[in-house]
Structures are given as C-alpha cells and as structure tokens.
Amino acid sequence: MPRIPFHYVDLRTFCYETEDDKRVESALRTFLPEDFAVSRTESEGHHGDRIVVLSARVENADDVRHVLRRLASLPEFETLLSELDDRVTDNTELFLRLDKQAAFGGTVRRGDGITLRAKVEAYPASKEAAVENAREALERAATLDADPE
C-alpha cells in the first residue's frame, strides 16, 4: 500500500446569501494547508438568490497528510473508522460530511455544510481494497509526518 493511498481529496461548501463569504471560506480552510488555493464559483439558487460554491482539490501528498491529520482530530474518529464500509463507494471514493459552523471556530466535527470526497487508491480497484487502504491511512493519520514520499 502506498504511504498516502489517496489520489486526491476534494472539499466543497456552499456560501448562501445570508452568510459571509470570508467566514465560510475560513471554515473550509480549517481542513486545508496554509495559503492553499480555494476556488470560487458563483451560482444562482432556485429563487434567484446568490450562492457561492467554495472548493479545493488537494492532490500533493503533504497536503493530503494535512487533511488526514485534521480528520484524525474528529471526536467520533473511531466511529468513522467503523463506518468506512458504508462511506467508501464501489468507485473507491470516501465520502464524509463535516460541520461548517464548528469548522468556522476551528473545530473538526461531523455534521452538515462541508463535503469531503476522497479518491482512494486501490489495486485492484475494488471497494474492499479501498476500505482497507483508507482504514490504514486514517489509523496512521494522527502521526503522519510531512516528509515527501
């Protein structure tokens, strides 16, 4: 298994008209390395209201390690590990929803507002192999170093 068995991690959140863009971006940045680029796309809701989609794709191994270390601080981390079979798809993607309000305060919690999607490396490309690779990487997440592979 590769040291970091993820091709990438996507993080995405919506900023609604009633929310402050800078605060929502700050919440997303709770999971990102310092000075990481965040993409902004403006859209329109069903009733004509402005919605800004903020997203980031983390591909560099050191940056993925940073995201994994943040996930390791989840209070319900052991529950997450026990749910991996339900959270990894047949397409070897790991999905998780994170609490946007808590993230604004710098706290990592599961909840609503931020979507994490991670493409897990698995050879052969099977759900079972992806679950095992994700489990091993997440279990080591708290102690991952920032050394290049």
TrEMBL record:
Query: What InterPro entries does this protein map onto?
Result: PAB1135-like, Ribosomal_uL5_dom_sf
Transmembrane stretches, start-end: none
PANTHER family reported in the protein's UniProt record = EXOSOME SUBUNIT, EXOSOME SUBUNIT, DUF54 FAMILY-RELATED
Official protein name in the record: RNA-binding protein
Query: What is the source species?
Result: Halobellus clavatus
